[in-house]
Amino acid sequence: MSEYRIAKKGRACAVCAREFRVGEDFVSAIFPLPEGSEEGSFERKDACPGCLAGIGREPFSRWVTRLPAEKDRSPVLDLSLAQDFLVRLVHEGSPERRSLMHILALLLLRKRKVKLIAQRHEGELPVLDLIVRTAEGEVPISVPAVMPADEERAGLESELGRLFGLSAGPVERG
Ligand SMILES: [Zn+2]
After folding, report:
1. How far is the CA of 52 from the centre of ligand 1 (A)?
2. Which of 24, 81, 97, 117 is deepest in the core (most CB within 10 A)?
3. End of a domain among 65, 87, 104?
4. 3-state helix, strand and coil shares in percent for the chain, rounded to the nearest 5
5. Residue 49 Cα, ligand 1 centroid: separation in angstroms?
6. If you compute the radius of gyration of the chain from its CA atoms, what whole number of angstroms results?
């Protein structure tokens, strides 16, 4: 939670600790956390392009970004990073990440960053066919559409809020 609050004020390089200036390019990257980690499944780290390798781990997903000028008004939304992350999750195709893919797809649908093409079934499994709008063009993906139980869903939404500034609603907690 604290990471999310810091991100509202400003962001700094995870390696050299320098704060990024408005308009300056930096890399936002998502790294897997060890299994059973209290913080969730993934963490986000920001770094200067030249510092990224200094983190010493290979990112699962990364995106070059910059701070918007109006950063104090609202939390920074990392929608491009979130889209890249979704595409990578789908390509990884890990069954234990099905719920995460589904919740992330729903949040991006609300932000109009993915487009719903079809709802269908693959055998027993409900699936959403989506188009992700990325800088490189439109990427077609299929996301398993199994809604997790409320508690798991709240945890996933909270994790996505922490990683990308995405919010499903007022879920501020201690
Ligand atoms: Zn740096």
Report:
1. 7
2. 81
3. 65
4. 35, 25, 40
5. 7
6. 16
